[in-house]
Amino acid sequence: MKPQLPPTNLQPGADSVVADALRAGGLSAEEGDREATTRRPWVPLVLPALVVLLMLGLTFLYWHSEERGARANRDKNFQVAADQIAYNLKDRMATYEVVLRGAKGYFEGSERIDREEFEAYVGALRLAETRPGLKAISLIQRLPAAALQSHAADMRARGFPAYRMQPDGERAVYAPITHIAPPVGDNLKLLGFDTLTVPAAQEALDRARDTGELALSSRVALLSGGEPGFWVFLPIYSASADTRTVQGRRDALVAWVSAQFRLADVMGGMRKEIDADIGLQIMDSAGATGADTLVFGTPMSTTASTLLSNRVLELGGRRWTLQMAPLSAFALRHQDDSHLPVAVLGTAMSLLLGWFTWLLATGRERTAALARSMTAELRAARDDLESTLNAIPDLLFEIDLDGRIHHYRSARSDLLAVPPEMFLGRRLVDVVPPEAATGCHAALAAAHHTGYSAGHQYRLELGGDTHWFELSIARKESAVQGGAPRFIALSRDITERKQAEARTHQLAYFDSLTGLPNRRMLLDRLDHALYSAQKAGQVGALLYIDLDNFKQINDARGHPLGDALLLQVSKRLSALLRGGDTVARLGGDEFVVLLHNVAADVESAGRAALLVAEEVRAALETPYTIETHLYSSTGSIGITLFPKRGEGVEDLLREADTAMYRAKDLGRNRIRFYEAAMQADVQERLALEQDLKKAHAEGQLAAFVQNQVDATGSVVGGELLMRWEHPVRGNVPPSRFIPIAESSGLILRMGDWMILQACEALARLQAAGRALSLSVNVSERQFRQDDFVERIRHVLAHTGADPRNLILEVTESLLIENLDDTIARMTEIVQLGVRFSIDDFGTGYSSLAYLKRLPLYELKIDKSFVQDTPDDPNDTAIVQSILSVARHLNLRVVAEGVETRAQADFLTGSDCECLQGYLFGRPEPIAAWVDRIVRPG
Fold first, then answer.
1. Measured between alpha carbons, how far is 408 from 396 in angstroms, rounded to an integer?
2. Alpha carbon distance 532, 541 (integer Å)
3. What is the pLDDT of residue 304?
4. 843 close to 862: Cβ distance less than 8 angstroms
5. Handedness of CA 172, 178, 183, 188 (dihedral sign)
6. Alpha helix (H) ranges present in 261-418?
7. Mean pLDDT over residues 91-95, rounded?
8. Please, which pLDDT band fits residue 923 given cuts at 50, 70 and 90?
9. What pLDDT is recorded for position 682?
10. What separation in angstroms does the CA of 339 have from each of 67, 237, 329, 331, 538?
11. pLDDT score of 187
């Protein structure tokens, strides 16, 4: 039998409210009769008028406030647009500086600039499309008067027979344009033009020279076309000079890189980035005290508003002041009249309220009759409310702001673990779990501030089962002024709804047989993976798997066995994946594997995806045990990589599906990429990598030596070269397998083996009394190993080789990053007695700055410079320059690729100490070479 509710439940509260209403209705009828004879006659006339005036005043205040807000919003939008114009212009100028700095780096990194090479470099920038307004990029060389004749002769010899200095006249210093690109229009006419003859250009050139920074000229007539525009200059100094002082920079100046642009074209190229409804004028001045000159202007409207805004940009030592004002179209676009209907409505409501006030002032007599009719209605409402409350199946509470329960009512008391009387006087935190209490209090606070809160869900364990409830709270208006707030809380049992939602989600997004994500879930995850790959710059992969001959098994053994096989396949695929990857079943015997963030580039991602596919294929080949029987099935796999431009998730599925069918066409149990070219390349590189792993163990790799001789032709040493004789491929050139060894990490073992071969050969030579040197190439990856120094020390100690005869060859690319760490490690190895050589010197980042800092013993001139000597004057000059630098730095020089007697005679005549090439012998196995040296003849 259900316990009776205490007398403090919700019902007495409802009765008291109805009684109060009934009493109020009776008093109103009596007072109405008395007031009808005693009220003042002027009240019905004055009171409505006052109400109308008051409401009209409030309406006017609202309209005025909204009008002022609309103006403020328009002003704000204008300021934002002005900031955007200034930012975009400054950003465009910054891109010009980046272009100049790139050109400067290009000139500084090259000893001699080839005109076609420079034009190709500038052409690759696509100035007309990407940087509108930029007319040309040029090199301006600083020439003293004494060098003018030799400079003109050099330029004519380089393909400019009509080259001359313009304008004519003798000057102490010239600054002619020697290179310019693109070579179109009037640009070529500027070759030889002395820019110092233009006062504005001279001022900017001097400023760039003295500051070392970008310098912008005042407006000038551009030399290409004669249009008004601007020049920007960036100085180039001698690499070895001290540029910390102004005088030092003046003495070290070699040239300038410059660019010309037309401001009108620049602004035209920014049309889509700036607001066209804003008038703009740009004033140029030399600084804070310079006079302003108008350099660009669009129509400025003074009728739209009095808004004006200035922005100051400091560009290349000059100050540009941007004066902006909104045009009439801007004001119309940002005009907001949405408050006018509200003001009209407010006026109408004011009049309506006045009319209603008049009705109240004159209609008091009707109140008594209305009260009597309402009394009967309230009694009926009371009875109806009682019936409604008894019919509600939810838990109904009346609580205060602290969550303390004051009243309780429910037709579902049987749900509770304790009698309902036990709730009275207790707080919500005492009757719900701690994890739900926080949410209940948040819902109560929301109802206190907004009047209503709904949708909070919490869980209770009742009778050993889990029940879900949804809590709705509404604020109850207090009948006592200033009384503590009360709230009505409605807790509805939504357990069945939650269970239905869970079942619906499982059916909608997961395969009913395997529990794997279905096609719908896969498409959603693939969409997210595609977006993530595009954003992060990573490459993902999609594997489409179809079981071979599954239909035969399914038809022969029945669907239950087929389902069991599919379950085992899903488990095997799930076990292979990383966290975050997805395996899905599309239906039948088709599965899809989604791999996230496989690699940062397509080539590496292709290799990694192929490795995963091989693992999947191997896993699917393993026989399946079902009901004590073994069954075999394989899988055909199609692979596609993403992201690709313009392709969506359905496109990727189609590509992977197509690749899978190609695999089936080739005989099943195969793997195929959608991209045919990539498929061949990835498989070739992977096969070569696998063969290379076996090559070292099976003795396919061999160390060869090529002679190094002195000026008399006597052998003074040799360079170790690795050769690979593959049993099927034949001789594999180093240019094919060395990059693969680098990327796969095999170069570490191969490099250690080569150093060991060199040290063992040196030990044999020492034992025979022959002190020859051997050079070994060391890769950057090998050099960067933490224990590389210790490995060298161990090999020397193990073989007993003299470290002074071991030369480690490194390339200039090793010196690009972490130069200080590189120097420290090289110094540590040199202290062991080992010596270092720079291989292929002149083909990389040749710099005298690092040559004088590195503990080097030797420079090797690349064969690309040697092969055309002494016939080619350019290569001849380069070789002679390298030899001269080496002599001043006390470095030995080895010339590679010597194949003719003329080359050898030229090199020995130029005091080159050591020669290497086919002229003195082809590479031979290291054992045969050592035997020949130890036992000559």
1. 6
2. 13
3. 45
4. yes
5. positive
6. 263-269, 328-333, 339-362, 365-391
7. 85
8. very high
9. 59
10. 8, 65, 21, 17, 50
11. 78
Contact 145/238 with Cβ under 8 angstroms? no
| 318 in Cβ contact with 271 (< 8 Å) | no
- Max avg pLDDT among 86-100, 115-129, 315-329, 908-922: 908-922
Q: What is the C-alpha end-to-end distance of the chain, expressed in Å? A: 122
Measured distance CA(211)–CA(198) in Å, rounded? 20
Alpha-carbon distance of 170 to 741, in angstroms, equals 62
Output phi, psi for 441, to 5 deg.
Answer: -65, -35
pLDDT in tens, 583-602: 999 888 899 999 998 888 88
Decide if pLDDT at 75 tops 80: yes
pLDDT in tens, 660-686: 888 887 778 899 888 655 456 656 777
In this prediction, residue 29 carries a pLDDT of 43
Altogether, the residues listed in the chain come to a count of: 937
Contacts 24+ apart (CB under 8 A), 444-453: 444/399, 444/401, 444/403, 444/473, 444/487, 444/489, 446/473, 447/473, 447/474, 447/475, 447/487, 448/401, 448/475, 448/485, 448/487, 451/475
Element (H or E) spanning 550, and its range?
Answer: helix 550-557
Task: Name the phi and psi angles at 736, rounded to 5.
Answer: -95, -45
Q: Which one is predicted more confidently, 509 or 650?
A: 650
| Cβ atoms of residues 661 and 674 within 8 Å | no
CB 815, CB 846: distance < 8 Å: no
Beta strands in 648-764 (DSSP E): 671-673, 701-709, 715-726, 730-732
CA dist., res. 170 & res. 275, Å (int): 51
